[in-house]
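call fold(seq) -> tokens
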Amino acid sequence: MTSQEETKKETLGLILVTWNRREELRACLDSVLKLQPPPDEIIVVDNLSADGTVAMLKKDFPFVKCIVMPENAGLCQAANVGFATCGCDYVGIIESDMVLSPNWVAATLDAFREDSSLALVCPLFLHIHNDKGGYYNWEDDGDENGYLHFTNGVFTVKKSVFEEAGQTLYAPHYFLYAQEPEISARIINMGYRMKRIKNAATFHNLDATPGSKNVRVSLRRGFFFNMRNNLWNLWTFYSLRNILFFTPLYVLFYIQDAYYIDSRYRGRRNTALESLSDISVFFRAFWDACKGIPTCRKRRKVVDLPHYRNIIDTFRHFRMIQKQRPIYEKAEIVCRDSEDFMKKLARKEMK
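ret:
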């Protein structure tokens, strides 16, 4: 017997949050047009760009729904607006400086159909290796079944999971950075799982590589949000024992990191004045984090499941991200581009 629900086509929409990335957004949308099957809805949420992004969308991509924020509200709030607007069963969150493999939608939907416990599916997240000219996998592949401890910033979620829980996609007060562990903890606390699939890929030309001249978000601003939001994650989702033990370690780690912000990323030694300025960012971030303690207490729900990333692994992951150069030197090239990825996938060479 075939019911109306059984024959209902599952739909997938894409949300792209952008800010002053007109040409990167154009390349991203060009790759979206090649998706088979295509997404059922495409929504661009623009954080009040000043580079002609909206005019470009109206001229070259009139079928795209464009939402212009009244101000630069940050990634979290902009993504929430797009998520609430999208009417599809599944919602993909991607950034405007990415390119998708043509099978992105098909592989994602297949993963959801095969496993009803999933609330979130990640593709391979491939970063460019600037020295070798190819893309490599920089992300945690999860356990032996592909289940993740927490997601990166590119994923597709089952919209009903958040609607049933009466929750937003992201915590809007995070603004930017470290929102992925937060959403991951909530998903696990709701009894769902996350999984990485290796038969679809997102290609990311990582801007914030050491020495890069294309760092869009100021390093001090990025440091501020990373430190503050990671402390909020620690205080909201981890046990009291972990909080007492790891908060001082986080503080020491971020003091050291603040001192070397410019010297590590810009390839030169800080002046005394620059070092003092960097340290001042640390104190502002810590003070802002402390002001958020009442919110952390109100939202607090410890994640106590074996497949959630434990605090030691989390701390190690943060250090790995902050000291990226050794990873680049050892990185194994996965593929040259999207076309090469699809060829290797067809020959079953992708691991």
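The chain has two domains: 12-208+332-346, 219-323.
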